[in-house]
Amino acid sequence: MMGQRAKWLGPASILAGVLVISAFHYTTSTEHRYLHEIYQRIYYVPILLAAFWYGPVGGVGTALLTSGLYLYHIQRDWHHVPMYTFNQYAEICLYHAIGLLVGVLSSRERRQRRDLERTSRRLSEAYESLQKTFEHLRRADRLASMGRLSAGIAHEIRNPLGTIKGSIEILSGEFPADHPKREFLGIVHQEIARLNAIVEDFLRFGRPPQPSIQPTPVGELLDSTVTLLQKPARDARVKIRIFDDPQVPPLPMDPDQIRQVMLNVMLNGLEAMPDGGVLEARVFRAPESRRVAIEISDNGSGSEGVDMERIFDPFYTTKAEGTGLGLSICFQLVKNHGGAISARANEDRGLTFRIELPLEAS
Ligand SMILES: Nc1ncnc2c1ncn2[C@@H]1O[C@H](COP(=O)(O)OP(=O)(O)O)[C@@H](O)[C@H]1O
Ligand SMILES: [Mg+2]
User: Fold this and answer.
1) Which of the four pLDDT bands, split at 50, 70 and 90, describes residue 5?
2) What is the pLDDT of residues 217-265, one digit of tens each?
3) Which of 84, 244, 247, 283 is deepest in the core (most CB within 10 A)?
4) Is 266 in the pocket of ligand 1 (CB under 6 A)?
């Protein structure tokens, strides 16, 4: 409404100006020549305004309108004063010259300002993307050094862990099934399995295997991942929904690795919804790029108490039993596919993770 009013306000005030000045010309007696000389100059106000606002078309257009109205008045009321008439004709020529000149200058100035704005916008975009690249590099560097460290530690732990496991199995034979202390053996077994899983994570993080690429339908991979999650999802009273896009072609990827990524992200989602909720996975062509996006969102605890800048960092965890390796492994695996993974807070509740994979192998 406001914009529309502003749009016709300019032309209307210019037109009104020209009409009012002309009315003064027509109604003032020729005895007051000094007044007519003033009116004649006031015509410059609407002409200049029109040239400023609407460029040469506005300037010359208003000059034309002005001279039309003014010429009739000159013919009718001033034909008996040839000297003054000559002066008036000269003024009319000046209306056009000035309308044109100021219009051209102002439209050139406007064009330059637009160019400048565009350049500054482009510059700030470039700066932003540089900043992102820098962040990316720093993260990659951090990942690499942490990776070497954790692979080293995991390697050192794995051998004694194997020895402990073997020894416990031998000792188990010494305890009959109904022995009162036998349950402790069970606990030791369980804890060894847990340590083993952590060591596996460390190793996977420290030495991510090269992906073995094959064309894989994303929707089917999602389905098979969700099948693995059925029991924990039922226990957590979480509903899982998949929205596949049949238009998306099979993508070049290592299906085991990308399943691992989906699994890590979805498990985090389940863990963020201890009181139940909905987990949604959506597949679609990322707009304006040769990539496919897989978005996984939950409506759990979200970003509260979480440092979103660090969630892909190794060992960053807010969980008592967490290793903080899940998302950093995802980050590496997706990066090795030439893709990207990012996280954002949902408008209402929970987080959305976006995994982007290229349509063609690089
Ligand atoms: N869906 C989610 N909702 C809320 N927080 C999340 C979610 N996924 C990840 N996080 C946060 O990111 C951290 C790192 O996750 P991850 O690397 O998988 O390690 P871990 O699960 O062992 O803590 C988590 O501890 C949690 O704080
Ligand atoms: Mg996790």
Assistant:
1) low
2) 999 999 999 999 999 999 999 999 999 999 999 999 999 999 999 999 9
3) 283
4) no
**Quick check: 299 and 226 in contact, CB under 8 A?**
no
pLDDT at 60 over 80: yes
> Which three-class secondary structure state does DSSP give residue 203?
helix
What is the distance between the terminal CA atoms of the chain, rounded to a whole angstrom?
51
Largest pairwise CA distance in the chain: 136
Ligand 1 proximity of 268 Cβ (cutoff 6 Å): yes
The pLDDT of residue 2 is 41
The C-alpha R_g of the chain, in whole angstroms, comes to 39
CATH architecture of 214-358: 2-Layer Sandwich (3.30)
300 alpha carbon – ligand 2 mean position (Å) = 14
Residue nearest to atom 11 of ligand 1 (CA): 311
Q: Which residues are in the CB-under-5-Å shell of ion ligand 2?
A: 268, 326
| Model pTM above 0.70 | no
Q: Where in the chain is the domain with CATH 3.30.565.10?
A: 214-358
109 CA → ligand 2 middle, Å: 57
CATH architecture observed for domain 130-206: Orthogonal Bundle (1.10)
Distance CA 116, CA 135 (A): 29
Nearest ligand by distance to the CA of 315: 1
Cβ of 322 below 6 Å from ligand 1 = yes
